[in-house]
Write a structure and sequence with these properties.
Length: 306
């Protein structure tokens, strides 16, 4: 089966920025895929190219084997994009917006699916409301319904939960999970890393137009970034300096509290405890914190400031 999205050697220049510098990546069919990166990394540019809305300078991009330039119509039909910005025509009702969008794809009798979308996105009561009369969160839900009106196999969500309240975010994710479970490929960009961690099977991280990581979420989180060990100690005198041998690992020492950074797989907690005991120091409390996606992300996109 063709990859849901295949990007090869993609370059894009704006007048003053080389926004994509030879990006290659593939999203497998049926995957829940995360596209992460700091502000200005090139995520929206990449999405807009996949959607056939932005020209590029070099490379190839295909949606389920259809070239986004040579086979634009087919590629576009297979894709639903929920844009970052909420754009709408204030003169139409919610149902009209969805009917018009169906018309763009040549779909006539689409009412049953429109009803299903309205229901799933909790918009049924607002079907006859004018777009301008909706709250921001509701408008965003209409954008999602609009992107799905032609039942695309591949769905791209560009920051769908930015500025959305917790309740709506939960219901959106429940809906997106259902879409994924029913066989759709989902590509998500988000600045909420815990969302990506919870939802995505694989994650690509781009930074300043370059792919800096592409791996399963699990493997990314397991990358050898340190774990934090927090200790409460009892000593005759508060410690003035870290015990010998542990000093390079100690990040903070405050009286009887000590925080150490341990390297995954090579540093053992037991050895730390033994080293402390050898100095007559007892440990009264201990807490360990694993690196999360946020730590990995920061590590991979840490910028060399000029
Ligand atoms: N239409 C445009 N004209 C000129 N430069 C642009 C245009 N769109 C984006 N850029 C520039 O291209 C680079 C990539 O921007 P892009 O919007 O793709 O990043 P992003 O990863 O989506 O960022 P964010 O997380 O802030 O949405 C940035 O330096 C941006 O200023």
């Amino acid at each position: 089966m063709a990859d849901a999205i295949r990007i090869e050697g993609l370059h894009k220049h704006y007048p003053s920025v080389h926004a994509l510098k030879g990006v290659s990546l593939s999203v497998r069919s049926g995957e829940f895929f995360g596209l992460l990166g700091p502000n200005g990394a090139g995520k929206s540019t990449l999405i807009s190219i996949v959607a056939g809305l932005t020209r590029f300078d070099q490379g190839r991009v295909a949606v389920l084997g259809r070239d986004v330039v040579g086979d634009y119509r087919d590629a576009r039909r297979l894709l639903g994009v929920v844009p970052q910005e909420v754009v709408f025509d204030p003169f139409f009702t919610v149902r009209e917006v969805l009917r018009i969008q169906s018309g763009y794809f040549g779909l006539r009798r689409n009412e049953a699916w429109i009803d299903e979308l309205l229901d799933a996105l909790m918009l049924t009561e607002k079907a006859h409301a004018n777009m301008r009369a909706l709250s921001g969160g509701m408008k965003r839900r209409v954008m999602i319904a609009q992107a799905l009106v032609h039942k695309p196999e591949v769905v791209i969500l560009d920051e769908p939960t930015a500025g959305v309240d917790v309740e709506l975010r939960k219901s959106l994710w429940a809906f997106v999970r259902r879409l994924h479970a029913s066989g759709h490929t989902i590509i998500l960009t988000t600045h909420y890393l815990e969302e990506a961690e919870a939802l995505c099977e694989r994650i690509a991280i781009i930074d300043r137009g370059e792919l800096v990581a592409l791996d399963t979420t699990q493997a990314l989180m397991a990358r050898g970034i340190g774990r934090t060990l927090r200790l409460c100690l009892t000593t005759a005198q508060p410690l003035a300096e870290p015990p010998p041998g542990l000093a390079p690992k100690v990040r903070r020492l405050d009286g009887n509290r000590m925080e150490l950074e341990l390297t995954k797989d090579t540093d053992s907690i037991i050895r730390v405890l033994d080293a402390l005991r050898a100095q007559g120091i007892e440990v009264t409390d201990l807490a360990m914190e694993e690196a999360d996606l946020e730590d990995v992300f920061v590590e991979l996109t840490r910028r060399q400031r000029p």
